[in-house]
Design goal:
Length: 275
């Protein structure tokens, strides 16, 4: 299904974005790889070429998702690779590991710049192209944290809830223009997300927490996402831990989830465990 389609993935230099890129390349897609670290993107490009069996149609396009002024130029460069963009996967993101009391406003703003405004700005820049094409697919890697609140992640949860609302609303606006929108809600996936997460003062957390360490394998996660995208699903939930039950529990028994989260927070504080 993705053969000869041009898919643009942000946050492609590691984790879920990297695994998605390799899966898509293996399915014959043309893939544009974006993130800030060009050296890491080159490494992912090599993996994509190995999966695709050919070097044609895998491109590196370094991009800082917070650079709104440079966005139009990046979209033009992305379009120039193959003449079109069939799918944009807004996957770049950073998480948080700090309580509200410990978190600086500047850290909240950084989380929103990367996880919300960056996704909106790039989507807005790509959308006119898809409208002109009369087709396209926009996906966003939100999170289970976009459906329920979890301690030590007030800013991350707020950002992922915001993203969920933006893309749900966008889906309605573009549905009759041949453009699909998919929100992806992964649970805990074994990537560098916790190491790269922000502490309260904005510094790098630098550790893999126990939830991520016990999370789903990233290739399994990418395969689940690809399957959902192939089926044209508007929402894809992917994960294999207890957090996935939280999705329906929150919907039907929110009080149970609120209590479980409060108890978890207190337990972590009592055990002197940061997260
Ligand atoms: N792992 C999980 O458990 C989990 C669960 C739910 C949702 N998610 C979401 O999945 C997405 C991918 O995360 P991951 O788990 O794969 O973590 P990861 O390994 O830390 O990957 C994050 C990616 O985002 C990129 N990125 C960060 N800031 C950026 C910026 N300013 N501009 C452009 N790219 C930027 C990073 O690349 P550079 O550093 O090279 O820029 C990297 O490629 C995120 O949106 C995350 O919130 C993850």
């Amino acid at each position: 299904m993705f053969e000869q389609q041009t898919l643009w993935i942000t946050g492609a230099s590691s984790g879920i974005g990297e695994a998605l890129a390799v899966e898509f390349a293996g399915l014959g897609a043309r893939v544009i790889l974006s993130a800030r670290r060009e050296d890491a993107l080159q490494r992912v490009k090599d993996s994509c070429i190995a999966a695709a069996g050919s070097a044609g149609g895998i491109w590196v396009l370094p991009l800082d998702i917070t650079d709104e002024a440079g966005m139009a130029d990046k979209v033009e460069q992305a379009r120039a690779f193959s003449g079109r963009i069939d799918m944009l996967v807004n996957n770049a993101g950073i998480s948080q590991r700090s309580s509200c009391l410990e978190t600086d406003m500047a850290t909240y703003r950084t989380l929103f710049e990367v996880d919300v405004f960056g996704q909106i700005a790039l989507t807005k820049a790509v959308l006119p192209l898809m409208v002109a094409q009369g087709s396209g697919h926009i996906a966003v890697t939100a999170s289970v944290a976009g459906k329920m609140g979890a301690p030590f992640r007030t800013g991350y949860c707020a950002a992922k809830h915001a993203v969920m609302g933006f893309f749900d609303a966008l889906r309605a606006e573009v549905a009759h223009q041949g453009i699909r929108v998919t929100t992806i809600t992964p649970g805990f996936i074994r990537t560098a997300i916790s190491e790269n997460a922000l502490s309260g003062d904005g510094s790098r957390f630098g550790k893999t927490d126990k939830y991520i360490a016990a999370g789903m394998d990233v290739t399994d996660c990418a395969r689940g996402i690809v399957k959902g995208l192939q089926k044209g699903r508007p929402e894809i939930a992917v994960g294999n831990g207890i957090e996935m039950h939280g999705l329906w529990l929150k919907r039907f028994f929110p009080g149970l989830v609120f209590k479980a989260m409060a108890d978890q927070y207190q337990k972590q504080i009592d055990n002197n465990e940061a997260v």
